[in-house]
Design goal:
Rossmann fold; 16 helices; 19 strands; binds adenosine-5'-triphosphate
């Protein structure tokens, strides 16, 4: 069932159009998220959808009725709004704030009936805010206030809730809680939720429909699984210093330092090392990674040169040679203590090769394990108990190889 529909909607201020040609439809129980850079018009669209801002052009329908023809009180029976504006409610308690949402249902004097009181408590329980109900709103944290504003929206018993950046200022726990509550509302109560968010990964993992906004228009609109590709987020936000991995849902800082360290990784053991080296300014090359390994996805997203092999295949002679060539040109080799199996045992040979040509090898395996794995050559491998200890023993990143090396390893 269609709850909100727009036709050739243009939103903005006065004559100025901020976003135009908006043709979207929100169905019952859908979780819809607006994504876009600062100033792209997310708040302007949300304000228009809830009738606070008159459209510059086109139409908005709330369950087939033109929203401009609906009185505010009638609108409030169907739609609840949680905007970012700070409330200064004087000496009101958490309960009072939540109960404000009953106003479309109370009589002329706004007196709460027993039923209103019960419904307010119900909403407070639903957002897990019953313990702050008797405290003054002004004295609560942003996360606690946000929960009460959600409760206020819920007691309205709306069919649609519109929220502008409901997770701003919240810590990770409250952020997850708010998103969980909203998700439950859509799935269990059939409420349609339309919101804007800045956390890309959270948005894409939670929402049924993403609306991507940039340069005055809707770039794309649909289920994130269908519309988000590898470069979608980097293009949407014009990100230069980082890349978004749609498969893992993470943003990784780009590493474009000249490679100095070859990280022999696998099974996810390389990920935190790639990130740590990137943070400290060391260039990285890595291998030999199977193309279904999490280290492969992270290394690709970070943008490091990498030597890879097809998933579930033995590492071929040729691939080993490519990795050896890279090692020859770099300063050092790191053994991440990757798990060893029949498909990647050549990575052990790779480390032995590095030792044989005199490259410093740094290992995160225990001394005993090194001896088991590298035999006599273990004496030429330095072991470290943890990554930071290992990084401290590296020469400073300024002393790294020249950009020419980067060219030779094929960046
Ligand atoms: N009251 C206003 N009068 C005129 N222009 C406005 C007004 N409010 C916002 N704008 C402009 O409209 C454009 C879109 O702003 P909007 O707040 O909708 O963006 P947003 O995507 O929500 O941004 P953010 O992610 O920073 O919250 C911006 O250029 C902004 O300067």
């Amino acid at each position: 069932m269609s709850i909100i529909k727009t036709e050739e909607l243009a939103v903005g201020y006065g004559d100025k159009k901020v976003v135009e040609n908006i043709n979207i439809e929100a169905l019952k129980g859908q979780f819809i998220c607006l994504l876009g850079p600062n100033g792209s018009g997310k708040s302007t669209i949300l304000r228009s959808l809830c009738g606070f801002l008159a459209p510059v052009g086109g139409k908005i329908f709330l369950k087939t009725r033109d929203i401009s023809q609906i009185k505010t009180n009638t609108l409030a029976e169907t739609m609840a709004v949680v905007l970012t504006d700070r409330l200064s409610p004087g000496l009101m308690t958490g309960f009072d704030i939540a109960a404000l949402g009953r106003y479309p249902h109370t009589g002329f004097f706004g007196k709460l009936s027993q039923e209103d009181i019960e419904k307010t408590w119900e909403a407070l329980h639903l957002v897990n805010a019953q313990d702050i109900a008797h405290r003054f709103f002004n004295e609560l944290s942003d996360g606690q206030k946000q929960k009460l504003l959600l409760a206020r929206a819920l007691v309205q018993e709306p069919e649609v809730i519109i929220l502008d950046e409901p997770t701003t200022h919240l810590d990770v726990r409250h952020r997850m809680e708010v998103m969980n509550i909203l998700n439950t509302l859509t799935k269990e109560k059939g409420i349609t939720v339309i919101l804007s968010l800045h956390e890309i990964d959270l948005a894409l993992k939670s929402c049924d429909i993403a609306i991507l906004i940039k340069n005055n228009k809707i770039l794309d609109y649909g289920p994130p699984e269908d519309i988000i590709q590898e470069d979608t987020m980097t293009n949407l936000f014009d990100i230069r210093s980082a890349h978004y991995n749609e498969f893992l849902g993470t943003v990784e800082l780009t590493n474009d330092f000249p490679p100095s360290t070859f990280v022999v990784a696998g099974g996810g053991t390389g990920t935190r090392i790639f990130r740590a080296l990137t943070k400290k300014g060391y260039g990285v090359a890595t291998g030999i990674l199977h193309e279904n390994d999490v280290d492969y996805y992270i290394a690709k997203t970070i943008g490091t040169p990498l030597v890879s092999e097809m998933p579930f295949r033995d590492i071929r002679e040729h691939t080993v040679k490519v990795a050896q060539k890279q090692i020859e040109q770099l300063e050092r080799v790191v053994d991440t203590a990757f798990p060893i199996g029949s498909l990647n045992k050549q990575n052990i040979d790779l480390i032995l090769y590095a030792v044989s040509i005199g490259k410093p090898v740094y290992s995160l395996r225990s001394r005993q394990e090194c001896e088991d794995v590298y035999g006599e050559q273990a004496a030429n491998v330095q072991t470290f108990e943890n990554m930071n200890e290992m990084l401290q023993s590296f020469s400073s990143p300024e002393a790294l190889t020249s950009p020419a090396v980067k060219a030779t390893v094929g960046v």
